[in-house]
Amino acid sequence: MTSVLQAQALGKKYGKRWALRDCTVDIPAGHVVGLVGPNGAGKTTLLKLASGQLEPTAGDINVLGGRPGSTPAQLARVGFVAQDTPVYAGLTVAEHLRLGARLNPRWDAALARERIGQLDLDPSHRAGKLSGGERAQLALTLGLAKRPELLILDEPVASLDPLARRDFLQGLTEATAGHKLNVVLSSHLVSDLERVCDYLIVLVDSRVRMAGKVDQLLATHHRLTGPRHALDRLQHVISASHTDRQSAVVVRSDAPIHDPAWTVSRLSLEDLVLAYMDKHAAENRRVALEVQR
Ligand SMILES: Nc1ncnc2c1ncn2[C@@H]1O[C@H](COP(=O)(O)OP(=O)(O)OP(=O)(O)O)[C@@H](O)[C@H]1O
């Protein structure tokens, strides 16, 4: 299998309003995939459609070769950790594990016990009394012990302090290193995604603006600074900002840029994501295409 998730013209309406519209995406297998985009881009809606919690209003979605949530077997293959790391406040850590064992046919009790031990969580502690970081770790443990083929995490670290975020992401990296686990993780924190993801998708207004392996994306995008009049010599402009004479431009190019008018520097992943999220970016790309003609 080459894709874990394929969506074709996928749409979801709440009442009269589209939350996700005409979304076409192909998420390859064998990666820890970061999903990033502005508020309201449709990330949570897409992830809920992928885990079978929502039904599409339009289009098709296919996860691990099946329709999300269509059968108990399909449900068992996909794990989902929602925003705000949902756990039952009144249940103890041990009761969460027992519940996980009862609800999940592929439950890995040894993995769950081992992780809870490593995290130094008291099994008799009620989840409502755990810190935000501990709750997130408990939710991740439940997601991993389900032994899914695809684990979906929707902004799992949003409310955590930097130390708890680091511990959570480290736990995720360790868990994925040992197993053939596909992960799709949404977050606004690009630096966090950079730490764990080897593939990145930027979703803006339901559309995939950028997708690819992180190392390839960084190798094929460049920041250029130079005189504004040299702008029309550039192709594949992703974003641009100008002063009267100077322009700072993000371009996509597989080949090195040798035009002496431009000073070329490397981009951070965060700058690259911002360039694609820039609301003028689509307009810039259109201009670049016109320049090419
Ligand atoms: N249950 C709902 N009822 C009505 N509208 C909704 C519902 N859930 C989401 N929406 C709307 O759908 C759009 C997409 O929301 P979604 O939560 O998927 O975006 P997102 O990219 O995950 O945003 P964020 O980064 O803020 O979490 C938004 O305009 C949102 O207001």
UniProtKB/TrEMBL annotation:
MF terms from GO for this chain are: ATP binding; ATP hydrolysis activity
Q: Which UniProt keywords apply?
A: ATP-binding, Nucleotide-binding, Transport
Superkingdom of origin: Bacteria
Question: Pfam families attached here?
Answer: ABC_tran
**Cross-referenced CDD domains, in alphabetical order?**
ABC_DR_subfamily_A
Q: Which InterPro entries match?
A: AAA+_ATPase (IPR003593), ABC_transporter-like_ATP-bd (IPR003439), ABC_Transporter_VariousFunc (IPR051782), P-loop_NTPase (IPR027417)
All copies of domain ABC transporter, residue ranges: 5-230
PROSITE patterns recorded: ABC_TRANSPORTER_2
Name of the featured protein: ABC transporter ATP-binding protein
